[in-house]
User: Which sequence fits this backbone?
């Protein structure tokens, strides 16, 4: 543990009840005056503008396996070619707490709703919290007992819900850091991440931070601890419902990570990306599809053990990428403009988020939804199969 992170007395169960507050409410001038800035907001800085960008329509969509009750909504998501996006802002809070998977609690016991938006949107208590009993008026959550540590150094928080997934790390946390490189930060400062579950993911995270913020120390916050920070920097997520990813977040990240790559003739590789050993949703006939792709000149690639830059270079040399929707296809970010892709998704979880990333990178997007072979888990977690004939029809000759 870093000497900037020191243990203090643990918080007992029920000691603190909190109420979720939106960032806009927390930093409004009226609220700050009325409360005497009880949340201890020290500064707010804009890192990215608001605006609108345009996405290219998908080249091909086969949604015939998607249930009829979802067809209209899914089709509408892919028809939204003009995408508004909002500001990315950096908030500095004094005496704030980091709880669970990157939830931020201000000094006045306000949970910054945007820092735990994913579980809250599903009606769930974020990690590190339980539903409150309402004894403190409008309080909706209470902190669970946890080991507590004091953090002395100014800290930029990159931990977010689901950050352990390579895709969320790359498109959420790393894109946040790419924008935060614009800040003039008080010296010294450090980066706070979650604690990875695997050495491979730890290497990816450490490498990302070292490339985007050379020389800045990185410390790991375990989900089960509460860290009380003297000065905490928190950046609003550079993504949102719709879905969208802030174009300057993705653009900065792509430029910073590929700056060492010397441009040259496109190798024109065709890649079939396999799911790796522990997929969230299993493509049951992946081996059959891989063989069909290989017969058409595709390289079958398991990228689960590759480091960050090996993945970036592989995709940067691709002319066509095919594979099941999952973490590895976040690397479409690194494809050169003019590449094409085919995303294979289960019928209960099509992926306009990957379409957004592909479109911003100039990648032609195709998606083929497959029939579910399990339906007992939450949407997006069920196994599926892809029709081989439809798959081949969407591949290049």
Assistant:
């Amino acid at each position: 543990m870093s000497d900037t992170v020191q243990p203090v007395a643990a918080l007992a169960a029920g000691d603190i009840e909190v109420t979720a507050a939106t960032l806009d409410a927390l930093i409004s001038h009226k609220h700050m005056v009325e409360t005497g800035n009880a949340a201890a907001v020290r500064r707010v800085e804009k890192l990215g503008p608001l605006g609108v960008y345009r996405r290219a329509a998908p080249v091909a969509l086969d949604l015939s396996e998607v249930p009829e009750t979802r067809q209209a909504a899914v089709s509408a998501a892919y028809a939204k070619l003009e995408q508004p996006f909002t500001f990315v802002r950096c908030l500095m809070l004094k005496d704030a707490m980091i709880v669970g998977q990157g939830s931020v609690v201000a000094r006045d016991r306000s949970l910054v709703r945007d820092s735990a938006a994913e579980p809250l949107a599903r009606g769930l208590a974020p990690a590190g919290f339980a539903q409150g009993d309402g004894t403190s008026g409008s309080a909706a959550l209470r902190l669970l007992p946890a080991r507590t540590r004091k953090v002395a150094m100014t800290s930029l928080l990159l931990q977010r819900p689901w950050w352990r997934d390579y895709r969320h790390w790359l498109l959420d946390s790393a894109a946040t850091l790419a924008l935060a490189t614009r800040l003039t930060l008080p010296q010294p400062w450090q980066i706070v991440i979650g604690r990875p579950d695997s050495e491979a993911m730890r290497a990816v995270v450490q490498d990302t931070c070292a490339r985007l913020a050379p020389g800045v120390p990185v410390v790991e916050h375990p989900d089960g601890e509460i860290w009380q920070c003297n000065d905490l920097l928190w950046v609003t997520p550079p993504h949102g419902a719709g879905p969208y990813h802030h174009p300057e977040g993705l653009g900065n990240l792509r430029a910073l990570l590929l700056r060492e790559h010397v441009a040259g003739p496109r190798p024109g590789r065709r890649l079939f990306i396999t799911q790796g050993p522990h997929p969230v949703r299993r493509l049951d006939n992946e081996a059959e599809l891989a063989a069909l792709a290989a017969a058409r000149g595709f390289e079958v690639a398991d990228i689960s053990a590759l480091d960050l830059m090996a993945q970036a270079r592989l995709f940067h040399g691709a002319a066509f990428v095919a594979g099941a929707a999952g973490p590895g296809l976040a690397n479409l970010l690194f494809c050169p403009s003019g590449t094409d892709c085919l995303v294979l998704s289960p019928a209960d979880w099509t992926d306009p988020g990957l379409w957004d990333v592909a479109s911003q990178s100039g990648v032609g997007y195709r998606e083929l939804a497959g029939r579910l072979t399990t339906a007992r888990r939450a949407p997006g977690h069920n196994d599926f199969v892809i029709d081989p004939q439809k798959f081949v029809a969407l591949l290049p000759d």
Summary: The longest strand covers residues 88-99. The domain at 55-80+258-393 is CATH 3.40.50 (Rossmann fold).
